[in-house]
Queue: 3 jobs
Job 1
Amino acid sequence: MAFPIPSHLPRQQDVSSKILSKIDEATGQTLNASLASSWLAELDETIQLTKKRIHDRIHADLPAFERQLSSSKSVQERLKSLTNNVDNLNETLSNPETQSGLVPTLVKALTAHAALAQQTTNATTTHNALLHLQRCRSEFNSLSSLVQVGRLPEAVEASKGLNTLLDEAPIPLSQADVIHDIKRRFRALKDRTEEQLSDAYTQSIFVTASEIKIRSSVQIRKSDTILELSSILSSLSPSSFSSHLATLRRDITTHYIDHILSQPCSTTVSPGSGGDHQLSQFPSPPNSEDRTARLENMCTILTFLQTHLFAFLPPSQNEAFPKSLCKPLSIAILNRLLIPSLPSSLGLLPVFLELVKRATEFEDKYIVGILGYAAHDREIKAWADGVSGHYERKRRMDILESARVVIVDAEDDGTFMAELAKQVAEPEVIPVQGGESVQEDTDALWGLDEGSKEETDENGWGFDDEEEPEPEMEPEPTTEQNDDPADAWGWNDEETSPVDDDPWGEELDEPTRPPAAPSISKPTSRLEKPSTKGKGPHTNGTSSTKSTDTRPRQITTKAPPKETYLVSGRTKNIIRLVEDALHESREFASSQLFSSSISLPGTLILRSALSIFDLYRALYPVTFGAHFALSSELALRFSNDCLYLSEETGKLESAVPGDSPLKQNFEDTKENLKVLGDSWFEDSIDNQRQSVNEILTAAAGFTDTGEQDQYDACESAITRVLQEIRLLAPQWKGVLPRSKYYIALGFVVDAALSRVLADILALPDIPEVESHRLSELCRILNALEGLFVEDTKQPSFVVAYVPSWLKFSYLSELLEASIADISYLFEEGALVDFEVDELVKLVRALFADTNLRTATVNKLMGGHPLPQ
């Protein structure tokens, strides 16, 4: 084998490889004899050169070469000698032909010895197995005889020894059929023993729903042996004994702890014959029961069990089983005796506190003392320390449950009229100084133009520069009989006097003033029509006068009329519950039944009074929300209920001491009820405004009213709105106070007028025919003015509650006015309710493009004239 060249040394290609490469490169055309001869000559030359290099190498260091050659020959001779010696030794040790060598002889001897050792081991194993089997048989026969005569405790001890023998059986014996048979018979015998012990246990301890029987000794069935209770209990297997104790604990807990602590019972202990002991229970009359008797019964039961059962328990259960009754007993005393006995009135608390005291004493003596419960884990004592809070929490639940029944009751206790706490402020008596007096501005009372003292010309629009002072002004009719658009539609035929069926009319013994009105964003100073229109007087507001009388006098004022509103009778029941809770809280705080360590007794009951309002706010809208969606009258009555409860809360707040931390809670509750009432009031108005908008959607923006079908659709929509508001007014009037009634009704009317105004002012082009028809449609809604009249002899106060009334009234006139009339009204400041852009757009829509229109538009774009 050639010596491999290391990878790091340069490799040289040998001659044979080179020649083979040349042969590989030769083709059929280039291969010839001369080429082959050159290859042979090259190979021969290379061989000669190699021989020469070898020769030169040897002779370059001939002595060393000779030494290595001599050494090689010596090694070869010694190897040959060693090989011969090894062959001779192998022949001596093992002769495969004659089997006379040392190894075959030794193997024969060892084989014979192993056979003899195996025989000895088999004999020994058989002897040991037979000996162990004999012991098992003896123990089994002894156990069988003990079981047969009923000596069960000794049988249990014997079975432990036999079980040990069977577990320690030699391995060869453990696999034998005989040992399997003994084990099977031993299990049967053991089960029989356990069965007899269980039977003896059931004879010794007998628990039913009416009695407990415990026998100190019992005779084993089918034998003459009598066993003591302690022997029976200690002989039972751990699993069987645990099962029996679990059943016993369940029966005692169910039939004697839970039952006796839940119902009135009596218990008696009677000793029987032959060491039998019996405890019986039977029902007692519930009417005259003293609940401390239940604890006395538990004392009797635990004493009976301690004397006749716990003392005979084996050491493994002597402490564990009594302790296992502690938790069920403590829970039963709390959940079945103390908590259900929490009184519902303060007068019953002393008796209950005596029961609590007796329960804590019972816990100390029996649960901790006899049953061995941990002294630091006294649940009854911990509960008793907080009995004040428990009582208040129970009362809170009772109070809130009573409130819940009242709140969700579908049958209300009728309704009543409550008086509004904040009446409409009447003007004060103003003494006139310096011999001068001023008649009060009626417009200011209604929230109209403050500071406006101009009069209305009875026969014209009142644009004359001169004013005629009148010491007494007779109110002008709101509309001329012949010019009332409602007459043409026949609505006045079925109109009744606004005073008829007035829910507030019985309180109005004097001429009424309109209730306080909301402020108007853009009051106008003029309502009069231009005299150039050739129509009679039309007044939508009231006039103010400036008195020139110099006689000193005072303005006579009258007491403001009382405002009432409809409230559900349910609210009185709620207030009554709150008052009762407040009264109970005060009584509880002053009762001195608990130690002084309790801070602020009665606080939770006091909070419960406020929680009634919270429960009402949360529960009532959810319970009756579907009814509110169907009737705005019911929704507004709920708003009134919240307002009434808010006012009553303010009255109840006076009963709370000023330094009480709950003072602010009363303020918050009062405010929350007011906010809820205002929210439902506003939502009801918004729903009606939305309903009006939906009806007017059918008018399609009042476009193309020149076509009869479209005009009929617009007329139908306007008529429906009028009817809707007229039907709504008496419903709301019977529920709301006067001030809120006119505010609510004004918002709905304003929604209708604003929608009509927006749609008409948005029209890009209004031909003459359409302008007349739009004016007629607008005049239909003028009949709504009658809803804002309380005295037919007095003018209406519609302007005070419908911000867009003046603007809407002028719109119907502007639709039929000439461009000169519009310019004149603008210069006189009568159109201040309109934005400049609205007037410009309206003029461009009504009139053709002329120089006059252009001049008018330029005048309008200059802005409204400043008031004089």
Job 2
Amino acid sequence: MAVMIPHYLYFLVILPLLVTAQTQGNFTLGSSLTAGHDSSSWVSPSGDFAFGFQQIEAGGFLLAIWFNKIQEKTVVWSANGGQLAQSGSRIELTADGRFVLNDPSGQQMWIANLAGTGLAYAAMLDSGNLVLATNTSTILWQSFDWPTDTLLPTQQLLSQGDNLFARDSETNYSGGRYQLAMQADGNLVLYTINLPQSSVNYAYWASNTVGSGYQLVFNQSGMVYLIAKNGTILDQIFPGETSTSTDAIYQRAILEYDGVFRQYIYPKPSSSSVKRWPMAWSVMYPILPENICTTLTEEYGSGVCGFNSYCQIGEDQRPKCLCPNGYTWVDPNNEMNGCMPTFVAQTCDEKSGDFDLIQVVNLNWPNSDYEHYSEVPEDWCREDCLSDCFCAVAIFNSGDCWKKKIPLTNGRFDSSVGGKALIKVRTNNSTLQQLNGEVKKRDQTTLILIESVSLGSLVLFNILLLVAFIIVFRQNKRKNRATSQYQVLPGTNTRSFNYNELEKATDSFNEKVGQGAFATVFKGTLDYENTSVVVAVKKMHDMVNDSEKEFQVEISAIARTNHRNLVQLIGFCNDGQHRLLVYEFMCNGSLSDILFADQRPSWFTRMHIAVGTARGLHYLHEECSTQIIHCDIKPQNVLLDDSFTARICDFGLAKRLKINQTRTTTGIRGTKGYIAPEWFRSMPITVKVDVYSYGILLLELICCRKCLELEAEDDNQMVLADWAYDCYKEGKLDLLLQNDDAAKSDIKRVERLVMIAIWCIQEDPSLRPSMKKVLQMLEGCIQVSVPPDPSSYISSIQSL
């Protein structure tokens, strides 16, 4: 009987995982990781992914990338699946610019194949991509270009020989029996592999897009689809998750060891589920192929489940490998390696009376025939197999009789198979009895061992239970103290503070870190649940007229939002005449602080910020329960956390819309230079005003200059939007980049980003794309068409 373990005991299970050292940021030459029980890892800025050594077996370590915030630590990429590393092996960014894995004796086990020289650092990204780059952020190597068995959102397979290779088994990461190939001819194909060679053997599924297919795309929204070179979608493999925000789930698509290509989702840990044991990975449907048991029928080879076995699809849509009566596993540890008879085979001088036929309906082994008879009765088919020493199985179906010999191949059990299998077994077999006796002996030995272990486990369990009780008791005391200190806004995790608490937290509002039209922001420190948290306290000015309305809007708009590209509201104060908002503190300030400084952020960092800002706006526009128009997107309202991830702030000017409401017609809001033309035309205000502002912001990120520079030496360069379009139209985009060598070396991307920005700043709001489409264009999921002239009207408006 299964034993249900209380959820609080899982703390004791994951405790050893929490003591492993983890580091974040860029890893420079000389950085290394060593395999061992206390292996450290390189963690992405959000902590979602980690790179390092995972112990797979005693003394065997896999150099891998995995999901880091969930219990399973699911591997998404590995370097040395075919040869596990011993304890003491080391992966190192060497001083001479190599990324190499050596065993404890210094012998090379694996090395990254760099596309160029000048390696300066490695970075583990929030996308799950490990990159090796130069000082100018030019990528020399990335794990996304060398996939193993898994694809992650934003990852692609190009028709240049990119493949996914299934592993050998669930726990063996060496090359397995299946491959997903994006072929140079444009066809996406699932193949069996002819082990121990690595050559393809049999195609059991194909997209049939020869001459037109170009790229398999896994976009941020969870869709997996095949596109042509012009961006046309040819085949949608997986539709993606539509009922849940993609920001609330992890996703992966994997060619599994059973030959099936599946997409999985997993709920991200959140503040509401910290004390709840997380769910498991959930498979999405459809899967490819839908039924591999009946799809895979190769001319040579054993099929899905190995020789002499058969395949059956379970309720979970996974193939189950089974042995027919009279057969047992060749390798009990790997049921996909087939079955062998438990009896001595029939010799040609033996009487048929020593054998019998066991009947199983809807079971067959195609491609194992050596004889076929038509229009015969079933009794005749039975007797003919019993008297034939070569016959191991007879298949009878509507007057047809097929005789099959060992090894049996491509076995499948399914209602679509029809007919019946007549399996020959020995009726009186000393060998079988001997085998059964050995099995019973092993079972008795195992039973004694299990009882011994169970007794010891019971004692350990009671000790763990006592420890867990003490831990939970202390946590509840802390929680009760915290709850009594700070009230929580119903339905949210937002706390209510009184004015004295925030005055104390900010040292009487001593350290000012920002100021706007309606508020001043101070840095402070709050103590709760035995933890000190640095916060930004936004103190609203005298609450009269519109200002008080702004406060009410900001509270209701932000309290129920939750996205990694938005600044999180921790709490608020509504104490008498005092109105304050408490946010998490962003240590790298605002985008404007670094974008227009003498030392500009790297090209890679700017693109990271551009995508993050787009994701935040997409969430506000389309994924909130209440749609939000920000109305004041600009560099000052894009804050940067410790990993320079974009976090949109200041919803004080936001317009909240019901889910079925698309526009509002209030007075002009926003900041000069970023205001959409419709504000000046008494036109309806929609989410497209944010798209316009984002387009201006994107141009600023590309060029590292302000949208309006009245002191520019050349009058044609005063308005960035006009100048950028002129440079694009004349093919002189390098003029926008000044001395930015990294951006110049990525000029194709620069051109695409400028085109996206021009689409965003179209005078006609209906021509502007949605933020969802902007995000898809940024991620390369859809092509960017040639934009029209955004109109000279922009220049006259912005100079007012």
Job 3
Amino acid sequence: MASTATILVSWRHVVVLFLPMILILGLAAEEPAIYLVLMEGDPVAFHQGSSPDHLHGKKLDPDSEAFKAHAKHLVDSHDQLLQATLEVGSYRKLYSFKHIVNGFAVHTSPSQAKKLKMTPGVKLVEKDRGAQLMTTYTPEFLSLPERVWTQEGGERNAGEGIVIGVVDTGIDPTHPSFAYDPLNPFTTKPSRFKGACETGPHFPESACNGKIISARYFSAGAQTTAPLNASIDFLSPTDAVGHGSHVASIAAGNFGVPVVVNGFFYGRASGMAPRARIAVYKAIFPSVGTLADVVCAIDQAVLDGVDVLVLSVGPDDPPEDTLTFLNVFDIFMLFARRAGVFVVQAAGNKGPSPSTVVSYSPWAMGVAACTTDRSFPGTLVLGDGRRIGGVGLSGPSFGGGIFLYKLVLAKDAMKANRTFPMTPEYIEECQHPEAFDRTVVQGRIVICTFSAGFANATSTITAIIDTARVLGLAGFVFVANPDYGDFVAQPLPFSVPGIVIPKIADTQILLDYYQRTTKRDQCGLVTEFGGNAAIREGRIASYQGRAPIVSLFSSRGPDIVDKSGNLTDVLKPDILAPGDLVWAAWSPVSALDPILTGYNFALLSGTSMSTPHVGGIAALIKQSNPSWTPDMIASAISTTASKNDNQGKPILAQGPDINGLYPSTPFDFGPGLINPARALDPGLVFPSGFEDYIGFLCSLPNIDPATVKAATGVSCNHSLAKPSDLNLPSITISALVRYQSVQRSVKNVASKTETYLCSVRPPKGVLVHINPPLFTIAPQGTQDLEIGISVVQALKTFSFGEIVLTGNLDHIVRIPLSVFPVSTSL
């Protein structure tokens, strides 16, 4: 499989370097597939309809006789149902889910799956849709060291006692980001945590060293779906991809780990919560990823007792035949939230098109990605003194970028005796060293061009580097092609001097210079290469950019309720965090990314990277406020977010024109950039719980209460008046006709009584009234708010505003408003 982190993927006239992704191929109509089945009856955590003990400060004891007895009962009931319903030999049960959801995963044929759907006691049957993968500076960018870690006792204590669960590709246990420091032992043991250490290839028992508090792997779905490659698909928690290690180190990697790549020191990396423990749940393998493995990992993580669950993996498309909120993956997240776990989920990498978020549900915090003000600029110096900007983590050409070398266009350096195909990958893309005349290119800088191979994802930067190394090039320049347009280039590490020039305008300057200085005969063959150039140092960071900027790839709202694209009254994404050019740990195996093989660190971009930033910060908030529930943490993060960039101006977004920036909206960044220091002390929070989420589901338009009961096991006894009445720290109305009253309730989590003044910046086309406009609230007190929104002008799209609650003790609570005013009359 070609690596998407080392190739350029064409998207009309835009090309984006994405993080690693695993694609799951669909199966033929009657070929067996994995089906996820939910059953009636309470799982262990919610047996007899009671709330889980750990919502009251206790943890269910998995070693208790009652726990074991009910768990065995559920497993037996799954086996009995399968035996009674399906033909002998027609199925294989992969997992029994029994902690937060009662159900199982089974490998069987579509016709047998239909039998399950008709069986009494079966609530839901869903075909497995597969699952895929969605720093040295970001702690400083988010002001963690001086404004947050100091409140927790410094980096030696930030996150102490908190367990972050990471469902991903595993972890590299030998990486220094996850090492145990005997000179700085952990002072708090999470006694509630009951994880275990599963061993296997490259993962001995000693790998669980205290920093890695437990590690498990889930492979039944993967082993059923595709043949595994023993050389990379290790049946252990070991990470052969790198993605899981990257995510885990962003959330909770050790403090101050030196980042060295190709002998160059880039700085020191630290996780957001460097003293938090890491619980590893490997559910994605290099060859395949299944939803069955992922949801089983979620079930186990909640049973083990994690405080925070980081999901930079999951389905990449909405479910085919059910509401986005009621697919199996989201149901598992709902019950994880019910069990007291803060769940953070990648928003997706399908931006900048609207309604591309894959985090749909209000009970999971969906994270968008943004840039920081750090960049790694490269420079190509031409013989006439002009400089062309580009990217590439590359050292300079020999001589420190001062000496000039002959420039050679790839197609002008082909062997005279051509025995190879005259295709772009040979004559333009520098993929095959055997196509070149060594005497022409050795010791020179060769110009390689983006062409069909890169557009079709078959050509790679890795191959260009190999060509440069084999032929002894002084360096390479990889340039844009007018036939394909500009592209976005990520600065990958180059082991030879090189630079990527992604803009057509800059490429044209280079090619004009090359043609002007190159002499040719009447047949067009080169008789003298007269152009010269040098590649300057490209590994030195610059900190002069405007930031944050919403990243091009980051998925956008508005949120959808079904695959048809019908909108729902939930703001997505939920928050913005750094996800562009993030240094973090990497596995040197790097099974999917040859360009990163052998490296212990990687510079990656994606919402997979922004998500663990929020997970680690949630751990810090939990450490500071141990009694807070997940919804209180989510509310604190949301209402304290920053809407302005480092220039004090509204946050901008990268859009369809990759060379331009555009005004952003809450559908790009939610309430704004996460502000950890303010989130520790938000003043007010918007509490909501499991019953509120059920009421939300029951209030959806045209919803059948039986559908909610089938998916969740809970009846629609307390529906909300409207979906927009769910007590979220935002208000979204996707079709406002004349007038709507929205209810909200806030709780004072500060230590003092405070008086708040309510003010409004109304969205265009509507008027907003708040009752009461002024209120005083005591510590732990609550206040109900009624927000009346009326249409004064119908529009053809959403408009945006906000409610601001300003306290006399300096707390400021911001509530984004996203309203589509449809009509002034009923």
